[in-house]
Structures are given as structure tokens and as C-alpha cells.
Design brief:
Blueprint lengths: L12 H25 L11 H11 L1
């Protein structure tokens, strides 16, 4: 079941479901990447140079 505040005039129910399915696939990709690359282990400040270097190294 999917709830939204968008009226049906703007967004049909079938379109909302398709968007949710797509979003869910993206979430699964992020979960998989975090698992494979140990990205959840990184603890750093936002916009930290060390964090950027670590993530870039993992992605390469």
C-alpha cells in the first residue's frame, strides 16, 4: 500500500506505484553498495576531504 498527498488530478495511482517501484530498486542498489564497499563504516564530517578520498578510492 502506498500513500501520497498528491491529488489524483496531478498523479495517477498507477504512475505513483511505478515511481515507488523504481525508488525501491534504487534503495536496494544503495544497500548492496554499502554492504559490498563497507560504506557504512565511514565516520567523518560532512564534506570532509578524507571522506571524499575514502569513498572515491572504494568506488575505483
Amino acid at each position: 500500500m502506498v500513500f501520497t498527498t498528491v491529488s489524483e488530478d496531478v498523479l495517477e495511482a498507477s504512475t505513483a506505484l511505478n515511481l515507488y517501484r523504481t525508488r525501491w530498486q534504487v534503495e536496494l542498489v544503495f544497500k548492496r553498495l554499502k554492504s559490498l564497499l563497507d560504506m557504512d563504516l565511514l565516520r567523518t564530517q560532512q564534506d570532509s576531504l578524507l571522506g571524499k578520498v575514502w569513498i572515491t578510492g572504494k568506488l575505483l
